[in-house]
Amino acid sequence: MLSFIFPPGGYCYLCGDAAGGPRAPLCRRCRGLLAFRTPRCRVCRRSLIRPGGDGPPAGRRCRHCLVLPPPYMGVTAAGTYTGLLRWAVGRFKGAGETWLVHVLGALLAEALAADGLRADVVVPVPGEPRRLRRRGYNPPALLAGFVARRLGLPLYEALSRRPGPPQARLTQRDRWLHSAGVYRVRAGVRLDGARILLLDDVITTGATLAACTRLLLGAGAAYVWCAAAADTPRRT
């Protein structure tokens, strides 16, 4: 069905112009709009922005890392959570347009390769059970499955989540408090020094990734690198 709607003949999934084929499903213009990036923090590798909106010089640290660096090694995102990418992620998460995993996943896999990622297994951030039943799919799991196949890595659903309010409805402070107790390592999970790629759809405060990283490290992971379709820039 997907090949009928989006013929695999080198056409852009978004605008229909000539593209690079199934492994590069966007034209140059749409790729540039989606994969817009800002400079990154030299510690956590998240996107950076100055209070006035201008990009900071390379090599700066975000405010968070000046106080408390995160437990994960770094972050890779397909682009900044703005403009066309924000629209695409919103449609992927909230409108059931799961075909967008081909676009978001391809961009993210390219960004991970550019960062020189070294990982043994891909772990998705688990979805909230009640929302998962209503939606019928978990966006981070779909994205993780695509990226795992593209990178030739196994997918391991090592984490679970208890019912609770969506993170988007909470304040920044409450997100950190909520995330600390909502996730669990599944029974019988053993990571034994594995290098983990932890996948989410959007990074906002980073509370979810920090909580999940601590659990994976506690289960024996050597280190955790995080990735998402989009990253909300941090202030310098």
Can you describe this structure?
This protein is an alpha/beta fold and 236 residues long. It contains 9 helices and 8 strands. The strands form 3 sheets. A 4-stranded parallel sheet has the order 2-7-6-3. Strand 6 (195-203), helix 9 and strand 7 (223-231) form a beta-alpha-beta unit. Helix 5 (101-114) packs across helix 7 and helix 8 runs parallel beside helix 9.
Helix percentage range: 25-40%
Briefly note the CATH topology name.
Rossmann fold
Per DSSP E runs of 2 or more residues, the count of β-strands stands at 8
Low-confidence stretches: 1-7
Strand order of the largest sheet: 2-7-6-3
Class computed from helices, strands and strand pairing: alpha/beta
How many structurally independent domains?
A: 1
CATH architectural label: 3-Layer(aba) Sandwich
Reading off the top of the CATH hierarchy, the class is best stated as: Alpha Beta
What brief labels describe this structure?
single chain, 236 residues, alpha/beta, Rossmann fold, two-stranded parallel ribbon, 36% helix, globular
Structure at a glance:
This protein is an alpha/beta fold and 236 residues long. Helices cover 36% and strands 17% of the residues.
Topology:
Blueprint (H helix, E strand, L loop, with lengths): L1 H4 L22 H7 L13 E2 L13 H5 L6 E7 L2 H12 L6 H14 L6 E4 L4 H7 L3 H13 L7 E3 L10 H11 E3 L9 E9 L3 H12 L4 E9 L2 E2 L1
Parallel strand pairs: 1-8, 2-7, 3-6, 6-7
Antiparallel strand pairs: 4-5
Helix pairs in contact: 5-7, 8-9
